Amino acid sequence: MTINLPESVKKIIAILKQAGYDAYAVGGCVRDSLLDREPDDWDITTSALPEQVKQLFKRTIDTGIKHGTVTVLMKPDSMKAYARQHVKEHIKEQNAKELSSPAWETYEVTTYRIDGEYEDSRHPKEVSFTDNLMEDLKRRDFTINAMAFNEEAGIVDAFSGMEDLKKGIIRAVGNPEERFTEDALRMMRAVRFAAQLGYEIEEETKKAIKKLAYTLKNISGERIQTELVKLVMSNHPEQMRLLYTTGVTGIIMPEFDLAMETEQNHPHHCYSVGEHIIHSMEAVDNQKVLRLTMLFHDIGKPLKHTVEADGYDHFHGHAEKSADIARDILKRLKFDNDTIDRVTRLVLYHDYKIEPEKKYVRRAIHKIGEDIFPDYLQVQRADIAAQSDYMRKEKLERLEAVERLYEEIIRNQECVSLKTLALKGDDLMEEGIKPGREMGIILKEMLELVLEDNTRNNRKFLLEYLKNRNN
């Protein structure tokens, strides 16, 4: 079994070996290559110490030198001619920021190491370097990530990673409790890999997750966010169910546990709240905002649950509550403001029903937001797909009619906001209206008239309205 290494990786390994050191491509790049997937990046492990690596390569960055990692910068093959002509005259002026620009390829080169005792479910108290590849591989998380390769030695697979790849198994290297004690985030990584690859988690590894899930409380929101996003954007977002059954969501997102435990006795539903959420995630495109929206769209239902005279479960006001909870969780996990804004708006309006008439569609586009309205349509479709068959045909027919009208509105460039209103603030100032509250009220009134009937979006009509309004 061989792997086609990029030329830059071959060169780095060759330089290290010529200097008398061992060097291998290692970890995820080996795993992905064996799966015929394009690796996101190529990591190299070596017996050379960080200072020795720095001596061998002219352009390096001390990205994690305390833990043995030096980033080596290489020119891509396509840039070789440029490099020969320009690097010598400019190299002294280039700082690390310039060197890490897209004109350069970056490769992490890490010394074989042995981790000391872990105290905080993430960081070892100390790291010691070794010249033994096996010592380095056995500290890695899962067997499928503990393989190394170079062209001379071939694949080094001391923990049956290739066999686990063939079987579709996520298995911890050695004792799973030890691996998860070293870094609690590895428990989420196990589920994430299962979701991305469509694999099962080996039983002892799964037992260790259930036992140690509580230690995820020590992990930062940013790191949890990274794993959660990769899971929900995978081809198997239903693995959220595994996060629940192993106790992980009980620590990182207890709101989801409450949803999994809330039934929906109602003709429109056939699943619990949590199962409905999971099925809706499967029904929407694997874009971050869409998948997160479906994850949170009904998360507030348990707090709005009532049983009414008809004997059915109801969840009045759940959209507003879900938006509030979504915002809290997204902030807790340190998501960026744009994601928080888009997701919470979609959650807020996910249940907003639009009558298939142009005036109502225009108003809805204005209300929900031009930027997210296409996403709103996808969210509604996924929500319907995860409900019972009751009135599904009617729901989809209404949604399809709304979508056709939306496309017509966009195609005709009809006015749905102040930015396309035929009269602007400057026009009102020319008519003697001063900037301020009154101007805002007038513009809003004009927009309402235009949303009702788009033929009114012309200067003559709006100026006549202004004239009559002021008389």
Overview of this protein structure:
The protein is of the alpha+beta class. Helix content is 50%, strand content 10%. It is built from 24 helices and 13 strands. The protein has helices at residues 7-18, 28-34, 50-56, 80-90, 96-99, 133-137, 161-167, 176-182, 185-197, 203-212, 221-232, 240-245, 249-252, 254-260, 273-282, 288-296, 318-332, 337-349, 358-368, 373-385, 392-411, 425-430, 437-452, 459-470, and strands at residues 23-26, 43-46, 60-64, 69-74, 105-111, 113-115, 127-129, 148-150, 154-156, 169-170, 200-201, 306-307, 313-314. The strands form four sheets. Strands 3-4-5-2-1-8-9 form a seven-stranded mixed beta sheet. Strands 6-7 form a two-stranded antiparallel ribbon. The radius of gyration is 29 Å and the shape is elongated. Mean pLDDT is 93; it is low at 78-101.
Characteristic key phrases:
two-stranded antiparallel sheet, alpha+beta, seven-stranded mixed sheet, 13 strands, 471 residues, elongated, 10% strand
Topology (SSEs and partners):
Layout: H1 7-18, E1 23-26, H2 28-34, E2 43-46, H3 50-56, E3 60-64, E4 69-74, H4 80-90, H5 96-99, E5 105-111, E6 113-115, E7 127-129, H6 133-137, E8 148-150, E9 154-156, H7 161-167, E10 169-170, H8 176-182, H9 185-197, E11 200-201, H10 203-212, H11 221-232, H12 240-245, H13 249-252, H14 254-260, H15 273-282, H16 288-296, E12 306-307, E13 313-314, H17 318-332, H18 337-349, H19 358-368, H20 373-385, H21 392-411, H22 425-430, H23 437-452, H24 459-470
Parallel strand pairs: 2-5, 10-11
Antiparallel strand pairs: 1-2, 1-8, 3-4, 4-5, 6-7, 8-9, 12-13
Helix pairs in contact: 8-10, 9-11, 14-15, 15-16, 15-20, 16-18, 17-18, 19-21, 20-21
